[in-house]
Write a structure and sequence with these properties.
binds phosphoric acid mono(formamide)ester; binds norvaline; single chain; globular; Rossmann fold; alpha/beta; 9 strands; 13% strand; 43% helix; 4-stranded parallel β-sheet; 5-stranded parallel β-sheet
């Protein structure tokens, strides 16, 4: 039987995504829900990059669902250098019931999934951060109730977080306006496929050159770091290219009244976002961080409990 992998948001149907968000809300209301869903199961976290939220929220989620989690850091697995990924994937599948992978290249997550006989969950690659998007959409739903017709504005780098956010927005029918510097647009293939899916849903997915045009009238103003993990050598060039793309008071004043500010964290204050905006009453960044836990519990219950 093929295991239920979760590598990108595009793996989900609208029905599954909505079910996951509903279940996340139930998990948040009742932390004991599904207390035995992972009873007797062990999940491995294979992380090649640092993490606070993803690691801790998954470890806590697994424990609250009655299972246990095991962390393998960059020195343990040494993917592709000590051993090929296909061997690690097949070996771990003989011990554990699922693998959460955080790596540099998305092709490595896909290789894990190809060879593992247990579910593989993407805990961030350079192209996707689907667990983040589950928490993000859950947070928006919590704030606004229905999401249909809402406008989300993303200002910054066309990166993993944006790709997953865009895919989720397209499935649920949100409008998404994105402003990035020209050389840092989202991945062309992902953008094209996502725009097609959005159009089928009657939602708009638009790239604009100006952060002000993106932010105007938005219900959500979202940003992420300009230099992602693995891009540290490009930092100086990126600081220069992104200068006009900071989320600050002036940009926020373009948005709708009641607009919320979102950031997946960690944040680089003074770069993509100013301290005052991050700490403002409009900022929901710690709700987002908390909601990683509830959204991932829902995801795990669906993967292992057949709940959908
Ligand atoms: N947002 C997020 O994934 O945070 P970590 O890198 O700390 O896991
Ligand atoms: N885009 C960031 C997200 C961190 C959670 C990165 O990949 O480093």
């Amino acid at each position: 039987m093929t295991p239920h992998h979760f590598l990108s948001i595009a793996d989900l149907s609208e029905r599954q995504l909505r079910a996951c968000l509903r279940l996340a809300a139930r998990c948040k209301r009742n932390p004991r829900l599904g207390a035995r869903a992972l009873e007797g199961r062990v999940l491995a976290l294979v992380f090649q990059k640092p993490s606070v939220r993803t690691r801790v929220s998954f470890e806590v989620a697994v424990r609250q669902l009655g299972g246990s989690a095991m962390y393998l850091g960059p020195d343990d697995a040494q993917l592709g250098t000590r051993e090929p990924i296909k061997d690690v994937a097949r070996t771990l599948s003989r011990y554990v019931d699922g693998i959460i992978v955080r790596t540099f290249r998305h092709s490595q997550v896909e290789e894990f999934a190809r060879y593992a006989s247990v579910p593989v969950i993407n805990g961030l690659s350079e192209l996707h951060h689907p667990c983040q998007a589950l928490a993000d959409l859950f947070t928006m739903q919590e704030r606004f109730g229905g999401l249909k017709g809402r406008t989300v504005s993303y200002v910054g780098d066309g990166n993993n977080v944006l790709h997953s956010l865009a895919q989720a927005a397209a499935i649920l029918g949100l409008h998404l306006r994105v402003a990035t510097p020209d050389g840092y647009r989202p991945n062309r293939r992902i953008w094209r496929e996502t725009a097609r899916r959005a159009a089928r849903r009657g939602a708009r997915l638009a790239w604009v050159a100006s952060p002000q045009d993106a932010a105007r009238g938005a219900d959500v103003l979202y940003t992420d770091v300009w230099t992602s993990m693995g891009q540290e050598r490009e930092r100086a060039a990126r600081l220069k290219a992104f200068r006009r793309f900071q989320v600050n008071r002036r940009l926020l004043s373009e948005a709708a009244r009641g607009c919320i500010v979102m950031h997946c964290l960690p944040a680089h204050r003074g770069e993509e976002i100013t301290e005052d905006v991050l700490e403002s009453r409009q900022s929901v960044v710690f709700d987002q961080a908390e909601n990683r836990l509830h959204a991932q519990k829902a995801l795990l219950m669906m993967v292992y409990g057949g709940r959908s």
